[in-house]
Amino acid sequence: MSDGFGPDNLPYGVFTLARGERRLGVRLGNGVVDLSGLGGLLATGSLNPLMAAGRQEWTAAREAVAAHVASGPPVIPLRDVTLHLPFEVADYTDFYSSEHHALNVSAILRPDSPGLSPQWKHLPIGYHGRSATVVVSGTPIVRPTGQLGAGEFGPTRRLDIEAEVGFVVGTPGRRISTGEFAEHVFGVTLVNDWSARDLQAWEYRPLGPFLAKSFATSVSPWVVPLDALATVPAGRQDPEPLGYLRPAGPAYDLRLTVEWNDTLVSTPPFASMYWTPAQQLAHLTSNGASVRTGDLYASGTVSGPGRDQVGSFLELTRNGTEPVKLADGSLRDFLENGDLVRIGGTARSAAGTQISLGSVSGTIVA
Amino acid sequence: MSDGFGPDNLPYGVFTLARGERRLGVRLGNGVVDLSGLGGLLATGSLNPLMAAGRQEWTAAREAVAAHVASGPPVIPLRDVTLHLPFEVADYTDFYSSEHHALNVSAILRPDSPGLSPQWKHLPIGYHGRSATVVVSGTPIVRPTGQLGAGEFGPTRRLDIEAEVGFVVGTPGRRISTGEFAEHVFGVTLVNDWSARDLQAWEYRPLGPFLAKSFATSVSPWVVPLDALATVPAGRQDPEPLGYLRPAGPAYDLRLTVEWNDTLVSTPPFASMYWTPAQQLAHLTSNGASVRTGDLYASGTVSGPGRDQVGSFLELTRNGTEPVKLADGSLRDFLENGDLVRIGGTARSAAGTQISLGSVSGTIVA
């Protein structure tokens, strides 16, 4: 199918019909195929039980779903369903694994000492976020308030996005090697880690971002199974990482798009990330910490080398000093109330076709 | 009762008898009173449903429990029960609200630029932690591994404690004013936020601590209801905080003890904290972020002005440069395998008596 939601994709989501209970479905074209009639783990109304069951069950479920889809089932138009958060989030972790993004941010925010922090190429830097405020695409984003500096409280003036790719853990574990990545990670979502840059600048030393990012994190309503995606070789890393981060594991040639209202402003290339998702998971669990079903870890802002490939407006507008012109002629530095941001993505499927990752969108409200 | 677990206390916990299901109980003396026979929210085997029901139900439950206890129910000896995590943790947040601790850490780790960060007295600094690895007192603490510096991976050499007080959210909400604190917070636990200082020093810039603290956070098995505790006036704050952090709300005169093996090494005074728990909750939700039933937020390391009042071994041993001598004559800089740490606490009850907060302990294993 030309829209990227054919039988080579079949991403999972949770939907309701009017006044109905939650059901598991897969997206097909512009509609949803109800899976609840297939029974077992597909009839629970939640993706988490299937995700907890492990890779063998994931493969079996995908085969059963593919056979069902091939049999020509009813397809419920998207306009007739409400989409929900596709899984219940356990812990939410966010990384910082684009070298281009880290260098851009450093140059913009710390011009006196630009460059990567000393450990950046030795480990994938990350931090924990707030799982309570992970919301599904389409949820309005209320402009956060907070301290903008000493003695000043109000709505953020520097509301930004971070275009990211999220990885959803199915099988629990700890000390997960990079080679075990596909045994533990169920699939992929798109993530927008909304950020208030003025709150962040004031609050972040020495314990990192807190309220600047805890008000909302949006995810796409479809979890694309890892099995649907083609892999590509990971990029070269210098210095060579420590043993627990080797081999790097698969990379993915996901191509993101960022639309600000009706204007395509950026096309971040996920293949340009420095650290792979397998390395991120290995690092996250390398101290003995456990991951659970429903854990979401995001890649960090995806920025490529080009100015039109950045994953944040901080970078796009050089911290607001170089506004961008949208299709309607208006200028933007950061987000205004009423603005809509939609992050989309496409991928090469395991079958060699181009498939869609869907999109994650949100409109800013006062 | 002389041990601090009389009818003026009645903290809640979750226990099992041999091969039994989970039950809610309250501690009385050296035993547990089973509450499952009282029905309703007390018969669910989990504290979360009661916590979610709101303050009116909390008061009614406490009255019912007190009446039951007064009727002379069977008391199951502690040795016959297994204690579990007393509530299911939603999001875990940790603050940094002791001025003495922040100044000590700064002087020890950043001697070239000691002092508080610029925003420290304007807002309670905090960060998100890992809720998956919150464990109940008594759980063995496996020494974490990680990067100790560039190119070096191994067991931490600087395993430390952080003696803290945790606040458990019952009623969900957002933008919670300091005056609404007692409507949302159900009770208090003791917290040990185990920390690997070498991992932390290498990883923490610019996004804060991550693996240095995500391997384990221990909590005491008893949640002392807020209703059991006497309040004291909060300390003076200069500069005056912004409006959303005023009034400061209640403070609590909790007195902690830190035992390293059999040696009492410190007595951190919670009353010396700069920011109150009501201000922490107000700040946490001031951007619009929601809290949920089961959210745990910890005070940050409790350190008083005296060298024998610090809540971490980093401070006690000046980052290992001034080892302490334990009762058996041995010296310690940081934790060794086999070491046991027990953090205890007492409080003044609402009835004017002295009550116990129980204790949180853990033994280090390789």
From TrEMBL, chains A, B:
Pathway assigned to this chain's UniProt record: Amino-acid degradation; L-phenylalanine degradation; acetoacetate and fumarate from L-phenylalanine: step 6/6
Domain Fumarylacetoacetase-like C-terminal: start-end pairs: 93-345
Fumarylacetoacetase N-terminal domain span: 9-86
Recorded superkingdom: Bacteria
One Pfam short name: FAA_hydrolase
Positions with a binding annotation for substrate: 96, 110, 200, 204, 301
Binding-site residues, Mg(2+): 193, 213, 217
Stored InterPro entries: Fumarylacetoacetase, Fumarylacetoacetase-like_C, Fumarylacetoacetase_C_sf, Fumarylacetoacetase_N, Fumarylacetoacetase_N_sf
Cofactor: Mg(2+); Ca(2+)
EC id: 3.7.1.2
Keyword field: Calcium, Hydrolase, Magnesium, Metal-binding, Phenylalanine catabolism, Tyrosine catabolism
Gene Ontology annotations of biological process type: homogentisate catabolic process; L-phenylalanine catabolic process; L-tyrosine catabolic process
GO MF annotations, alphabetized: fumarylacetoacetase activity; metal ion binding
Active site: 101 (proton acceptor)
Annotated Ca(2+) binding sites: 94, 162, 164, 193
PANTHER family referenced in this protein's UniProt entry, alphabetically: FUMARYLACETOACETASE
Name of the protein this chain belongs to: fumarylacetoacetase
Highest classification ranks of the organism: Bacteria, Bacillati, Actinomycetota, Actinomycetes, Micromonosporales
